[in-house]
Amino acid sequence: xxxSRCAPIVLFLLSYLPTIPAQTSILGFTPASAARETAVETxxxxxxxxxxxxxxxxxxxxxxxxxxxxxxxxxxxxxRDEWKxxxxxxxxxxxxxxxxxxxxxxxxxxxxPMHYQAVLREAPLDADPDSKNPAISGxxxxxxISGEITAPVVYAHSGNPEDYDLLRKNGITVxxxxxLVRYSNPYSYRGFKALTAQREGAAAILIYSDPAxxxxxxxxxxxxxxxxxxxxxxxxxITYDFMVPGDPLTPGWASVPGAKRIPIDQAMxxxxxxxxxxxxxxxxxxxxxxxxxxxxxxxxxxxxxxxHLGGERVKVHLKIExxxxxxxxxxxxxxxxxxxxxxxxxxxxxxxxxxxxxxxDPSSGTASMMELTRALGQLTKQGMRPRRTIxxxxxxxxxxxxxxxxxxxxxxxxxxxxxxxxxxxxxxxxSGPNFHGQAVASLAPMLVETSRSLQDPSGxxxxxxxxxxxxxxxxxxxxxxxxxxxxxxxxTLADTRIGSGSDHTVFLNFVGMPVIGLQFDGDYxxxxxxxxxxxxxxxxxDPGYRYHTLMSQLWGVTALRLANADLLPFDFASYxxxxxxxxxxxxxxxxxxxxSGVAGSRSEAATESKDLVSSLDLAGxxxxxxxxxxxxxxxxxxxxxxxxxxxxxxxxxxxNHGMMQVERNWLxxxxxxxxxxxxxxxxxxxxxxxxxxxxxxxxxxEAQDWPTAKQQAEILQRALENNTKxxxxxxxxxxx
Length: 736
Ligand SMILES: [Zn+2]
Fold this sequence. Notes:
The chain is of the alpha/beta class. The longest helix has 26 residues, at 706-731. Bound molecules: zinc ion. Zinc ion binds next to loops.
């Protein structure tokens, strides 16, 4: 049971309010500015209310609103109109004509050894009126191709490459067959499963939700609990956006009118396989009729049947008709113009499109955004306009391929590189009470500091609640052997390992902006299904809308600190320490990477290696990290001293613009090898969406491609040296 459902306990704790100590100093602020900022934040935090969060959430979850649909476009107009009333400025709806995806029809029929017609729809729940809405789509996966085939079915576990190796060992090929795989827990992007099946020569892929992962094996199912019921279908796109996100026809440039478009058969991110999601209700008849060897223990699932590898006996007829083609997506953009520094931007964003109602994903975030903008508008009307400009965007087509944010980011890339301080993403605001804050390492300290000034519904500060969540998760990780220390230091609170899978991607990996991601989560088994709706949120996710409210407060306060700081609260010493950790981990995982001159780290395998060429020495990189860290520490000290008194605005401008440049300097214009769109050399994502640190270097090491690895190490070393020079140059503007 989660705390959010213990209403009496929470009410009891709330009677001890307030427990947040007043903050006397704030990173990046002089004492006088910090006092002003505290007053602004106190006012800001008093505006969002649970009732308004709930009201907004109901509006966004009233009807299905997939990207490109009439309803989703009406919601774009609704946001525009609300923002006007709230007092946002320069509101504009931007249109991108992109390659979109829509289902037309799908059928799946088992024709041997017996007949079974798959339902491919979600059963309505009596307790949940929205689940009876006739506009709910059936089973479909975005960017599947159309087709029709009759073929045997093979069970391929999670559909990862090693799963096909095991099938091969058992003499089972999937060429021309249909693979049945399950959504795996931990999460791995379904597009990677589709690409893997395509590479293996499968004719189609069926991806089902096993009750072991998010159904009855986890606990009570909807409508009695938060987990997925028998007919739950996890929709989703299979776009290969890990190669290049956004419109597949405009890789690297915006889909504005008149833009050049490549043919779909040349589009790297467009799948070339039929794909369909299944509920476990529809997967069970296939699984229980399969022949072939018994699947290994780790492949057995939550259904009360033995899982076999299959391959011959079960034959199905699958037909999928899609309507994929160019259609308009709409990004809504609004802003509060900065009073002093209108050309320095803090960008905030949340996607609007949902697979169905989007109770958690994304409408919890959209509701929080609407309350955030209402509060920002009120502050401005009361004369508390931020110093820098705050831009807020409602993205479209995130679910299809991070499409709206990618097109917008590509369109304004050069302006963003000149003006943007940071991007703060909220996708799913709330599926439970556990806070997860993500940030590039230079912003991690300011995010941790910000969490101290917010009140968690549990009665603790958000900071204390966050610490408790991280400690608990570390403890759980320890049990499964992933963690070896249980202390939660402030430096390890924020997650600084940033993969893909949401709208921050273009800003971090293409534009080179520092990013922050905010989310509360909990037990959530209805992801991307029709059951992710208003009922679910009101019974399980956030019944009192208190975490929605807290998200509006947190998101807004974080934005206000970046918008109002005298000197931007970047901590580059912290960045250096993180990069060193990334390098150490790379060396620990790959014995061919040596860190010469570092006691005890020269690995046996490398020194014993007969072929001296097949190793990589990162001593130069480590030295560059040390000097970057020293420069970061020196700058921190100078900035702290400078912030004790008033600051010359010209000096502040030079410093702030210089500090904004640091993140851009992590970009390699050529991108990471094989994926030129992804330009950041510290952060990337694997094809599974999982975070991938030092992506170019790591992938080269893993492939034992030593010339490329050496080249990537040199690129990293040069970037570190450039940023060291930049920090020292900035410090020279300060007198202390
Ligand atoms: Zn989402």
